[in-house]
Every structure is written in structure tokens, then in C-alpha cells.
Amino acid sequence: MTTLVVCLDRTDDVGRRTGLRTPIVGWEAVRALVTDVGLADPEDSGVNTLLESLRVAQSLRDDDEETVVAVVSGDRDSMVSADRAVAHQLDELMAEYQPDSAIVVIDSAEDERLVPIVESRVQVDAVDRVVVRQARDIESTYYLLKQFLADEELRQTILVPLGLTLLVFPVLATFVGPAEGAATITAVIGLFLLYKGFSIDELLAGLGRQLKDSLYSGQVSIVTYVVAIGLSLVGLFIGALGVSNLGETQGAVVPTMQFVFDSVPWLAAAALTASAGRLFDELIREEPLRSSYLHLPFLVVAVGLVIRGFSGFFLEQQGQIDPFVIPQVMVDEQWGIQSFPLTSGQRLAMFVSFGFALSLIGVRIAARYAETPMERQDDLSGASSGKKTQTVRNEAELTDGGSKAAEGEADEDNRAESDDGEKAEAEDDVMDHDELDELDELDEE
């Protein structure tokens, strides 16, 4: 068994420094080549590669294995010509020595590109990459960068934002100043990191698919979603308008509470519209309702009442809104209960109580009219068993029908044969009558 220990040199450093032509084969020839290359350029890592090839060949010989050590170089004109030169030299080695396997010795990522060429001609048992000890960290960093640049997703995620930053920052520094440009770039990078960190791109992609499915399936929720977006925009506008009417106020608590107080009814109406659309979709499908679809509208209104109650409490404490007044109630055409104002605490308690009661009502309605997960599982199992039973019945009917059809075909064949026999007999009778007539005519003549 012969093993070829081949040292690969894609850029033809050996020929450029020594003037020799490859392939160079044999222990003594490669050993002399080490001296020539070392004298030409002592700092070249190719010397270490040649020595490693000799060491591997010697180790195999110590194990009583026949080895052939060789040095193969490429061409300096182009990478294509270099690879073809290496392939031609390997073909010469294969034809002359006919090795059973090969061990490849390389010293760079550039030479590693030649490994598939060797594998296409002989079985490669090992690839020995030589890294000079003083340059190990640099070589490892090079391989890490090489792997990093080979990953398309990492390139788009890291290199593209970095390149845009380097391009945009000089423009911003020229027109608006270095400080403003740095602040803008930092804000954009922060938004990008949050965008990737919270997987907003995946959420948007899922939302797009869901919207497409809704459009093609003809769901009512697509219309209610559009209405909900419109109501949300109105709520944000009303909230911003309420903040602008406050005038000058110290701090951010009062403007925030005013914005929440004015926008919550519209935002709650938007959420209620969207949840109603999902509920209509479930009703149209004529499937058992889930508890979440029934409970969600009540929950949305309850949360809106609680938030509006707390925001109204803070605003009333600051004197921004008037106290809540209970109107008069007429009983039997008479004013039974006189109107009276509520304090801020009573107002908060009333809104929280209404929200809690509405949430309980939603829970009760969902528990009564919606299907529980256990019942849904039972329905699904029953439906699957019913489908299996129906499948078995269909198979039985098909089997019976097939046998009956076969019997019917046999009967039809028998009938056809009997009909053919009767026709044949009738034709024979006709022929007999014709022959008798001819004989009678001959007798008369």
C-alpha cells in the first residue's frame, strides 16, 4: 500500500524563489528543496510546510508503510491556470506511482482550495495544516474572518449597517455637525439592534402572511382590523390634542395622564372592534366557540374602564377635569334620586368596580357558551374516530361494490355469449333454408 504525501503550493512560491519546476518527488529532492527555499526566504512558512511533509513521510516509514513525498505547485498567471497546473501534475504522479491514498500538507487557506482536486483523483486520508507558532493567533483570526465572510446572513446583519454608518456619518458631520451626526447614527444603530433583538422582522413577516391568508379566505376580521387601525389613529390624535390644550405644565405626569384619559376610549373601541371581527369569523365558520374569543371583548372594555379611572383620578387631583356627577334618576314620573358629584376616590372605585364586574360577566358568558379545551379535544377525537369509521364503511362498500361489479360483468359476459350462440344458430338455420331452396330449383330444372 503506497501513500502519497503531497505538499501543495497554489501560488508557486517554490518556483518563484528557487527557479525549479514541479512536481518534485523523492525524499532527497524535497530535503534539498528545503535548503534552497530557506536560503531564498528564511521567513517563508513554506519551509515549515516542506519540513512537515518530510516528517509525515518519515513517520509513515517508521510504521513500515511505503510512502512517496512530493511537492506540487500551481501557476502565477491566474487561479484557473494554477489549479489546472496542479491537476496536471497530480495526474502525472497518479500515473507513475499509483498511490492508494494521500495525505495533503498545506499552510494557508489559499492552498486549501486545492484539496478537492486531490480528492477527485485519490482517496485523501488526512489534511495537515501547518501554522507557524509565532503567527498562530493571526492565522486563527484569518480563518475566523474567512468563515464569517462566508455566512451571507452575518454579512448582511453586520457589514451592511457598518458600511452605511461609515457612509452616512461624514455627510451628517458636514451638514449638521459631528455631535448631531454621531447622535443620529447612535440612535439608528440602537433602533436596529432593538429591531433585531425583539425579532420584529419575524413578527412583520408573520403579520404579512396572516393578512394575505385573511384576504384570500374572505374573513370579516380584515375589515374590522382596518376600522380598528382608524380608531387607534383617532385616539392618538385626540390624546395629542388634549395634551396640546393643557398649556404650560411642570413635569410629564399630567400630560401623560391627559393623553391616556383622552385616548383610552378610542383605543378600547379599536380593540373591541378587532376582537368582534375575530368573533364574527368564528361564528361564520360554524364551529364551537373558544372561550378566549368570547371573553376578549369584555376584557378589553374592562381594562379600558380601569385605565380611564386611574388617569381621571390623577387629573382630578390636579384640577384638570371636573368631578364626576351622578345624574338624576326618574322613578314613576318623579325624580327619585337627586344628582350628586363623586370624589376622586369614589370615581376611581366606581370605574374599577365596573371593570371588575364586566370581566366577571365575560368569564361567566365564556364558561357557559364557549367550548372548553377538554371538550374540543373530545370533539376532535370523536371526529377522527368518525372519519375512521366512515373510511372503513367506504372501504367495505367499495369492496362489496367491486365484488358485485365483478359478478355483474360475469353475468353480462354469459349473456353476451348466449346471445352470440343464438345468433350463430339462427344464421345456420338461414343457411340451411337457402341450401334447400337451391336443391329444389335444381330438381325442377
Concise overview:
By secondary structure, the protein is an alpha/beta fold. The chain is built from 15 helices and nine strands. It has helices at about 15-20, 25-40, 45-60, 80-95, 110, 115-120, 135-150, 150-175, 180-195, 200-215, 220-245, 255-285, 290-315, 345-370, 375-445; strands at about 1-10, 25, 65-75, 100-105, 125-130, 325, 330, 335, 340.
Structural features, described:
The protein is of the alpha/beta class. The chain folds into 3 domains: 2-141, no CATH class; 151-197; 218-326 and 343-375, no CATH class. It is 73% helix and 9% strand. It contains 15 helices and 9 strands. The protein has helices spanning 13-18, 27-40, 46-62, 79-97, 109-112, 115-119, 136-150, 152-175, 178-197, 200-217, 221-244, 253-284, 291-317, 344-369, 373-444; strands at residues 2-9, 24-25, 66-73, 101-106, 123-129, 325-326, 329-331, 334-337, 340-341. It has a 5-stranded mixed sheet, sandwiched between helices. A two-stranded antiparallel sheet has the order 6-9. Strand 7 (329-331) and strand 8 (334-337) form a beta hairpin. The radius of gyration is 46 Å and the shape is elongated.
Topology:
Blueprint: E1 2-9, H1 13-18, E2 24-25, H2 27-40, H3 46-62, E3 66-73, H4 79-97, E4 101-106, H5 109-112, H6 115-119, E5 123-129, H7 136-150, H8 152-175, H9 178-197, H10 200-217, H11 221-244, H12 253-284, H13 291-317, E6 325-326, E7 329-331, E8 334-337, E9 340-341, H14 344-369, H15 373-444
